[in-house]
Structures are given as structure tokens and as C-alpha cells.
Design a protein that fits this description.
Chain lengths: 324, 324
């Protein structure tokens, strides 16, 4: 059985030898560039692990795994342009290094390349793999659109927020596992259970990210703590606070959201004081644990030997163990 | 047998009843909008005609035909953004009516929707249909990139230009016919011949467009004559003139390309005088006729009853009959 690290190493190698045309240079250089920036390759690794759950031979899952990684990087490329982000993984983003037009077109070709790699499999479950990918890719676009919509709104509900992160983040993690399972010969029911495992894991992971952004340890989290607060992001924490705080705290929170020219630490502390007053941290941890529990339940439902599930259980436990 | 008009009417109806989600509104409204702007629906009609060449039952070709039309409109949507065009078919372009970001994301979802419709067929040639689409979609991106590259160059060769229009325009016309043929049950060899028919027809058509832009009759051509000259577009005519004119004419042509603040008619007349001095019109017509002849030869090669070829021969003859 492959460990997560084995799968990541395999993907890293496959991405390194990926055979892209040399010309037109301005079309394919940005593709090579963004794929070379690294990242943890979690999604394609999950494709391989999903296959390995049902089969020792994972060869049918390799190209779909690459397709998933290309698709994920395509979304990063276009998201960076839409958000006008200048840095991605410590390097200039494509629209800065080249141009917005080149970023649009290179992204477009990546989206099609993704579909091409997804379809390069000799799995008999070929059609289901294709369908899962198409459905998921559409959902990811919907999630990104909702995220952009929410930036202009202050009345986003918890339910709407969960639906947004489900579409923007979780479905691709879930689909990676499902596509892997299908490529590994899983029956539809088992593949669907594995999808649900991934979906709940993805939701837990995104809420953890929200929590870590406000309550994480700068050293272990890696990013600057409080960034979501400073940029007025409507995270699970912020929405929970807006919904659960006393009227005077809610009014104060809305007031703080308007603060711009102030010491950033003051703003972070002021928001976190309101979070603390209505138990935002505890409520978020409860929700995260619910999703982790649900995920593990879905994994239990799959009718294969327990031994084969160890790798995914370990992955889930490692995620759950992130400190906050 | 379907006539071209029958096929166009069928496509028009299918596009009208296409089932797109209502939300997120800002994601799908632009998709509905651009698909509703009309156009001649030539490409999807060719999918149906390609199928009808080999089968009376064209049902397996309908969804792929819609996929081709969605893909074509996706390229228009992103091209309009990259070129910053404000009008498409007499209406505001998506990035003007909504925003650049919405145009990026709606285009992205269209590209995936296209692949989804292409894959919604019960044809046994499903995999070949998929492969033809993926290969072609990638080529169209390459063609657009070359077109953008060429804007900054004055040394584009005839061969490079033909390769650019092959990728940007012809392969999609060719692939439409091939995908139709495959959906209609054609063998690979016949489908490939039909592809070549479409490819040469597409090249002839694009060169005709170049010619009509400078030598067309405003009434029948519809667009403003001389626009390519005014915008310094490196068309087949311009490249032929730069290659074939006497040194002093070439120097004058390069000089004219720098003219900006002058009576447009003067610029058009000055360029056309040089075109006439080195027989650009006759050379272009020769090339167009070569492509038409080659196209018909490819159609002849297909081993089916002559009766079935009448519709495509008529289509080809009508294109050839455009006046210049």
C-alpha cells in the first residue's frame, strides 16, 4: 500500500516529466511555471490513494491524478488574476510575470489539458470518471462565483457559507478520491462513500483554516495570523459572530469592519474579543469535529478490509491534529 | 437527408431549450446571454451534417453539436475580453455588460460545459469523439496565442500565417465534421477525410474573409471594407504584399503601416495600390481555389454514395460563390 508520502513523491515525479509542447512559448511556459511552483500535491495524491484502496495496481489512476493537479492549478491561475494576487507560493503570479491576457489563455489551455489527462485512462469506469470530473469542475466555478458574490455582501448565512466552501474547495478533494476509487475498480456505491469522506474532510479542513487564521500559532500555521480579520473576510468565524453575538456586539463588529486606518493588532484584538464573547472558537471546533466524525463514518461504511483504510485514517488524523 | 438550413434550425431549437442552472446568476446569465446572441450556428450544424453523411439517425450527434457551439462561444467570450472588444453581434460584450472577472469565470464554466456536452453521447466512438475535441480545443488556444504574438511582429511568413489560421479557425470546423462523422458511426479513415475536407474549407473561408475585408462589396459583405488595413492586421493579403512587392513598394507599405492620423480612405487606397501592383488579389484567389479544390478532393475520397455528399458539396459551392 502507498503511504500519502509515497503518493506525493510519485505525483511530483509525474509532474516533472509531463510532456507539454514548447510552442507557442507564451502559452505553455506559464503552464510549466505554475506546475513547477510545487505545493503539497494533496489532490492528485488522493487520486492515487483512492485507487489503492481498491486495487494494488494504480496505473489507471495516474493520468487522472495529473489531470486533477492541472485543473487545480488552472483554478489558482485564474483566481490569482481575478483577485489580482501578485504572489503565489513565493513567486510572481502568471498575470504579473507575463500578462493578464496570457494568464487567461494559459489557464484556458490548462482547463482543457486537465480534461485530456482525466480521459487518458484505460479504466472500464472511464465514463463515470469523466462525469465526476465535469460535474466537479463546474461546481468549482460555481464556488468561486459565490465567493466573489459574498465579498459584496454582509448578510451571508452559515448555510450559504458552507455551500460556498463545499463548492469552492471540498468537491475537488472529494472528487479526487472518487475518481481514484473508480480508476481502481470500485463499485459506484463505495466510490460515492469515499466521495462523502472527502467532502466532509474538505469542509473540516477549510473551517480549520478559518480558525487557524485567527487562532493559529504563527510558527506552525505559516501564514500571518489575523489576515482574514484585517481583510474583512466573511469566514465561518465572522459569520458565526455576526449571527450569535449580542446586538451591541454585532453593531460594534459591523463598525470595526469599517475600520481601515488603525493599528492592525488593535483591529485583530477588537474582533477576537467579540469572537470570545460569543464562543466562536468553541462553536467552530464543534463544527470541525462534526465534519471529521462524519468523514470517518463514511470511510467505515466502505466494504473493504480495515487494513486498506489505514492510510486515509492516518491522513484524517493528521489533519485533525493541527493545533489551535 | 438534412439540409444545412434544417441543421441550423435544429441547433437553434436545441440552444433555446438548453438546461442551464439559474444560480449563481452572475455565472450562468452571461452564458445564456452569449448563447442567445445568435450567429449562424455553422459549426454545430456541420456536426449534424457530418453524422447524417453516415447515418439517418443523428441523435448521437446532437449533444456533441451543442458542445461545439458552447466551446465556440466560450472562445468568443474570452477573445472579446483579451481584445477588449465592446460589441459582439450588435450587443455589449460580456466583460462590458458584467465585468472582466465575470467574463473570465463564465468563460471557464462554458469551456467545461462544452466538454460535458461533447461527452453526452451514446456513440460507440465516444473515446475518439472526446480525443478529437480535446486535441482541437488545445489547438484553438494555440491559434489564439499565435494571433496575439503576430500582432507584435512584422516578419510573419505566409507559412506561419496559414498555420495560425489553421489552428485558430479551421481545426474547429474540421473537428465539427469529424465529431459528427464519428457520432454517425463513420470508420476512422472516413472521419479523417471529412476532417481534411473541413480543414481546407476553413482555410479557404478565412482567406476569403481576408480578401473580402479589402475587396468585398460593403452591401454583401456586411462589414466595413478596409478595416483590416486600418488596424494594420497582418492578413494573408498584407503578408503576401510584404513578401512579393518590389523593395520600394515594401518600404512604402511599412511606412504606411505607421500612418495614424490620416483620412482612412487615403490609407486604404494607398495600401490597395501596392496590393494591386503585386497582384495580391489574384494570388489570394489562387490560394483560395487551391483550398477549395483540395477540400472537394477529400470529400470525393470518402467511400459513401454520392447522393449523401450533395449537402456538403452545396455548402462548399455556396461558400466558394461569395463575390469578390
Amino acid at each position: 500500500m502507498l503511504s500519502l508520502e509515497d503518493a506525493q513523491i510519485r505525483i511530483k515525479k509525474e509532474i516533472e516529466i509531463i510532456d507539454l509542447p514548447l510552442v507557442p512559448k507564451d502559452l505553455y511556459d506559464p503552464v510549466r511555471y505554475i506546475l513547477s511552483l510545487g505545493g503539497k500535491r494533496i489532490r492528485p495524491a488522493l487520486v492515487l490513494l483512492g485507487a489503492n484502496l481498491f486495487s494494488d495496481d494504480i496505473s489507471s489512476a495516474v493520468n487522472p491524478a495529473i489531470g486533477i493537479e492541472i485543473f487545480h492549478n488552472f483554478t489558482l491561475l485564474h483566481d490569482d488574476l481575478m483577485d489580482n494576487s501578485v504572489i503565489r507560493r513565493g513567486k510572481e503570479t502568471v498575470h504579473i510575470k507575463w500578462s493578464p491576457n496570457i494568464s487567461i489563455l494559459s489557464g484556458d489551455v490548462m482547463s482543457i489539458l486537465a480534461g485530456k489527462y482525466i480521459s487518458k485512462t484505460n479504466s472500464p469506469n472511464y465514463k463515470d470518471i469523466q462525469d465526476t470530473f465535469n460535474r466537479t469542475a463546474i461546481e468549482v466555478c460555481e464556488g468561486q462565483m459565490l465567493d466573489m458574490d459574498f465579498e459584496r455582501r454582509t448578510d451571508v448565512s452559515i448555510q450559504e457559507y458552507l455551500e460556498m466552501i463545499r463548492l469552492k474547495t471540498s468537491v475537488l478533494i472529494a472528487a479526487s478520491l472518487e475518481i481514484g476509487a473508480l480508476a481502481g475498480g470500485a463499485d459506484k456505491k463505495s466510490a460515492a462513500e469515499l466521495y462523502e469522506f472527502g467532502l466532509n474532510l474538505g469542509l473540516a479542513f477549510q473551517l480549520q483554516d478559518d480558525l487557524l487564521d485567527s487562532y493559529g500559532d504563527t510558527k506552525t500555521f505559516g501564514k500571518k495570523v489575523g489576515n482574514d480579520i484585517l481583510t474583512n473576510k466573511k469566514t465561518y468565524l465572522m459569520i458565526t459572530a455576526l449571527n450569535n453575538s449580542k446586538p451591541e456586539d454585532k453593531a460594534r463588529l459591523l463598525d470595526i469592519l469599517g475600520w481601515t486606518t488603525i493599528d492592525p493588532f488593535k483591529k485583530i484584538d477588537a474582533v477576537k474579543a467579540i469572537y470570545d464573547a460569543c464562543s466562536v472558537k468553541a462553536l467552530t471546533i464543534d463544527k470541525i469535529n462534526q465534519f471529521f466524525d462524519l468523514a470517518l463514518q463514511k470511510l467505515e461504511n466502505i466494504n473493504i478490509e480495515d487494513d486498506r483504510k489505514i492510510v486515509l485514517k492516518k491522513f484524517s488524523a493528521e489533519l485533525k491534529g493541527r493545533e489551535y
